[in-house]
Protein 1
Amino acid sequence: MSAAESGVPNPPVRRLGDWSASHLRDLADDYGTSLYVLDLERVRENYERLETAFPESEIMFAAKANALGRVLETLLEAGAGIECASAGELVRALEAGAPGERVHYTAVNPPATDLDLAVDAAADNHALTITAGAEDTIDRLEERGYDGRLCLRVNPGIGAGHHKKVRTGADAKFGVPANRAVETAVDAAERGFDVVGVHAHVGSGVSSDDLDAHREFVSRMGDLAREVNEALTAAPDAQAGLEFVDVGGGFGVPYREDEAPLDLEAVAEATRDALGEVDARLTIEPGRYLVADAGVLLTRVNTVKDAPETTVVGVDAGMTTLARPAMYGSYHPIRNLEANAVDRPETPQTVTGPICESSDVFCTDRSLPETARGDLLTIGNAGAYGYEMASTYNSRPRPASVVLEADGLATLSRRRETLEDVVRLERAAGDGEVDSDEPNRGSPREVSR
Ligand SMILES: *Cc1c(COP(=O)(O)O)cnc(C)c1O
């Protein structure tokens, strides 16, 4: 039974303070730290709110935000499709049970091996859609004998991101320039592709405080979809018009405690208005919105050091565990989970990881309850772009992931990496052999391109 059906409120945001400290302490005791915890019920709630706001639309979850199998399964079960940014995500979506018609593979500068795999997958799943963002990606698909469902990614030339590195719409890397979109779509249709959609994603940062950029973008997509539809149906070899117009993801979440949650109804209304009448279904591709507040990262304090400038709190998670603060300067809430933390005086503290990099910092001079060695801290809004961006830099094994099922029971969903895992692919000293479960060559030029 859904939260809405059961009458249980489905709040627009779950704050870090809403998580049960004693439950999280138990999880840290049972599974160790650092540890990702993901509440699948909250993922479901986030999906339900989106579905309520966008009732007629298709919701594709952008798997790159969190490709954990249990997350994909949960969202598929709830009714979502999966948007895949790589062959790896495509494999994981299919393994999670996604039927072809609910899978989009978005080819961004795709390596040959990715295209090979996507074309193979489409041969078994005819309803799968491949999104191309460059004319020569269409050529490369054709060279592989693919002429199935094709969506054209366009570059509308405006970005709504909060940081340069996450702005993609204004970035020439993504999509066919808008002024070539119609001819590219018609050309693909004439070559036998089934042109089913147009797509753009302008980065992460749709906010209900400022919907102007979003409106402008969506209205361009509406215009474009109408033009493409007209051109496709007018062509000599007339094909059916578009099935969908996909306006991407980027639905913002409040990372700061005092930030208001997104007004989804307002965003949905602005989206529908700006799109106008189009003879095609609206598709959205949220990643972050569905998973961010469903996840936290648990980390234990290794060291507390008074420095003249600040108190340095060293924890066992670092930029290799959660990269966003180091990579984008992102704010994540931090809470001390010790039972008596609320009674402690607050002081300015800088929370850092164990990586030898000065950017390995979760917060600088933030006012937090005095920290002691051994304290358990939790970092909030870690469900999106958390584990997915983790690395083994500094030869640090990646953390474990635990999911909370609907009944609140925890299960280990991905074990902690070991040092053995980290060195597994290396040539072992003396034996001259590498573990060759996997082909060592990527995509030799003469084989495929
Ligand atoms: C990353 C991405 C998304 C999701 O972005 P969010 O900000 O997480 O909602 C959607 N579509 C595409 C093509 C993406 O690359």
Protein 2
Amino acid sequence: MVRAALAFTAVASFGSAVGRTLVDDKHSVYEPSLLLNELCQKIASSISDASDVYDAASVNYLEDISHWGVSSTQLAACSFEPGTPEDVGIALRILGETQTPFAVKGGGHTANPGFSSTTGVQIAMSRFCDVDYNPATQTVTFGAGLVWDDVYAALEPYEVNVVGGRVTGVGVAGFTLGGGYSWLTNQHGLTIDTVQAYELVMPNGTAINVTETSSPDIFFALKGGLNNFGIVTRFTLKTFSQGQIWGGVIFYPPTSLDEITKATANFVARNKDPKAAMITSYNYLAGVPEPTVIIFYDAPNMPDEIFDEFLAIPALNQGIGVSTRSYFDFVKCILIPPPRRIIFDSFSTTDYSLPFLERIVEEANSMAIDTLLNTTTFLNYDVEPFLPTLYTHNKTPSAYPPDRTRGFMPFEIYFAWELPVFDQVVQDAIRGTKETLQKYAIANGQSDANLAVYPNYAIFDTPLDKMYGANLPRLREIKKAVDPENVMGLAGGFRF
Ligand SMILES: Cc1cc2nc3c(=O)[nH]c(=O)nc-3n(C[C@H](O)[C@H](O)[C@H](O)COP(=O)(O)OP(=O)(O)OC[C@H]3O[C@@H](n4cnc5c(N)ncnc54)[C@H](O)[C@@H]3O)c2cc1C
Ligand SMILES: *[C@@H]1O[C@H](CO)[C@@H](O)[C@H](O)[C@H]1NC(C)=O
Ligand SMILES: *[C@@H]1O[C@H](CO)[C@@H](O)[C@H](O)[C@H]1NC(C)=O
Ligand SMILES: *[C@@H]1O[C@H](CO)[C@@H](O)[C@H](O)[C@H]1NC(C)=O
């Protein structure tokens, strides 16, 4: 999804089309049914002063229902901003008893419609915004309403960091509950590998702290199992010391596709240094290639050789963009302007050989022309290489990935468009392009049907066994024990 900003003409033309219409629904003021209205009133009169319920006329409501992509937003009957785990519990009990649909939103970055939005009660976690660093235990506890930028900003003065998001603005909650691929993953694993505790409001309304020793089953299930087991209010993560880093975003002209592809294949084949990470984004705006590469090295100085090939390719922002800076500054410069309608899809690979990358470019080029006719504004094929050792940093099992015995990498595809009438066409197109490339990768020994798909990149109807594999029966057992009434089934998302 890396569509880095600063970009030139591209951002101007794409950005102007963005507008900030919150939803594509024709109603200007949403009027919920009487029943839902009463339900919202009931929550409002049951909660403490730390929390509030808002109707469609309020500014808070608009903020609470809004998402990064408009296609992930729905008009809720009301929004609820809980300020304490107890109030989350009160609401969950009322919602469960009345069988009212609801949604939980962290940073609102899911591309899947209905996963963190609803026409029932929108729970927005924004009041859980504390960041509490504990130097003695080298951990940090932070609220589920934050974006990673907030956590990085709070930790920077202590020269420590967490394994979190790679670009600006992404929510901590969905990211962490789904897995979490970071610039630091080659060194420390996924975000879930660094979680020490979750503060969880169980579906029956009781709040508990979940650790590996206190509730091993729920701890396992929350590591990749998203919103199936309750509502998380706070995360406690391990911290790592963090100095200045070297890196940045490089924008290339359309004519550099071949050179970038060769440089990427060479990086994947040669890099052994866990401090080095990169993303090659094959972006297309209105059919025109806008390749972008982000390079990262976890030390103040440019590493020997690893990135030389990328630096030698003439760039549009030659000489600027890549520098020594703080980790937070680096993430802040990777700004992806919010598009309108969006969809992601993904499969996993064990390698990125030159022929495979060339096949990706060939496919992306042809899709860019094909979908142009159907008003798809923006296409992104993201190559996110990791070392084969990325899953060895933690030995305890987690819901995702179901198999840690071999290294694999999520390959992510992201399309953005303007008009709701094209939703189906574009969703079919992204499935088609994924299948084409997955077939190629499997036929050429770089993927197989058993490699788990990353839940946070997977399209909404991805079968659960494709993401959770052999863990699925255990996850279903835990789900039954934690949520016998299936309260969380009233919220959208991948359902166990
Ligand atoms: C621009 C962009 C960059 C990204 N970069 C990366 C990346 O570098 N690495 C990576 O791994 N992924 C990345 N992603 C994917 C990202 O992990 C998902 O989009 C994730 O859903 C974002 O979390 P959120 O809190 O913003 O989402 P939301 O839309 O708020 O929530 C997503 C899901 O989590 C559930 N949820 C949210 N809060 C809670 C809670 N408190 N308790 C229980 N369930 C909850 C929601 O119900 C929903 O099902 C990126 C996505 C985008 C759009
Ligand atoms: C919710 O479930 C937990 C664990 O099963 C239990 O300890 C707790 O008492 C339950 N809470 C309520 C309100 O029933
Ligand atoms: C979880 O632990 C923290 C720190 O010990 C504590 O402040 C908090 O109240 C606990 N939450 C619950 C729900 O027990
Ligand atoms: C574009 O639209 C045409 C006509 O509706 C359709 O036949 C074609 O499959 C679409 N192509 C893509 C890539 O969506």
